[in-house]
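Problem statement: downstream parser choked on a complex file, so we are re-checking the raw output for the zinc ion run. The parser issue turned out to be on our end (a line-ending mismatch), but while we're here, posting the original submission so the record is complete.
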Amino acid sequence: MLEPSPLPLLRLSAPVPPAASARIDSAMNRAITLSTLARLVASGAAVSKADLVSAAGLARTTVSTGVDELVARGVLGLDGVRPTPGRGRPADRLALCPGGFVLVADLGAHGAHLAVLDLSQRLHAHTHVDIDVADGPDAVLGAIESQLTALRASVPGPDPVRAAVIGVPGPVDGRRGVPVRPPIMPGWHGYPVTTRLRRSFGCPVLLENDVNLRALGEARALPADQAPLLFVKVGTGIGGGLITSAGVLHHGADGAAGDIGHIRVRGAPDVRCVCGNIGCIEAVASASAVARRLSESIPGAEVATINDVRALVSRGDPTAVGLIREAAGLIGEVVATLVHFYNPARVTIGGSVAAASDELLAGIRAVVYQRALPLATRNLVLANSVLGEYAGVAGGTVLGIEQVLSVDGIGVLMARA
Ligand SMILES: [Zn+2]
């Protein structure tokens, strides 16, 4: 039984040849072609050979040979016909055949979205569980493994799990599959997250930063001309994710690109950040920073939580709204600088505070348009996240399916199908 999906169909990218093979021979060319065709069908961008010719920009005969091979090996199948305009013969409608699932775990500081999807992006099950990343990797990953296993078991059928994607709220080394000195995740530095989950689920596992996942999900839910895209998440911390004009994540040399929470802002109060430095944007303008200031501003009040901030802001409480406006001004300064540096087509503001009220977006927008020069803001769209809390699951879906239908993955699929 399929759940109504909160996600639109997401665009999948054309494959990049594996870095290990510098030489592209005809076998590699063929694998790239097959991977491209399968991803276009999985994206919903093409359902017939004619669609594939225009979407892939490949010759008709290349597409025809590739589709025939994918059909012969059970990767694509014919799913009825689609009427063509005019008097033409109805076109065969193509669909991905192999069963199998992608598991996504999108971890925040205090909760995780878990989802089970198939290769055609259909959402079969999803849930939200409370976790605390500060409990350490053994406790948290143990809980995630058992919850994901239960969620998979709730979906009928014997199809295998073909890939899993996990997002965590800290910097990661995606190649090694380990978190790298994550400030709010004690005990996680260097922990072999992907190795552990690969053993549990018996499939390739990808580790990504949580804001990167959101940035990717958001960019692939929007038209291609909305990239380059900068995603700014304002929650317990402040983080950023960068999507290039080609629609892919920009990780930087060590995976630290977009980690904007520790940029220092001029004129910010001298507050010590979890990273040890003073005056980081995260220490003065995150939802936790606002919660702390809210507690200080109401004498005798209980310590406010992020949920309290969200509730007060959505009710229009003047103290909370004032603090959010102040935070928005500081975040706006950082975003204006980044807009000059990166010239994005879109800046997306995400996180629970942005979802609760437009104050944060309005405040950031005011500063960015005032501070940044016209060339950088002429066509800039600055908006709240279109996917909201599901942006991370969307990004995980994209990464997982792209892995299964990658140049390497398609070979595995054809051998088994
Ligand atoms: Zn810091």
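For whoever reads this later: The domain at 223-385 is CATH 3.30.420.40 (Nucleotidyltransferase; domain 5).
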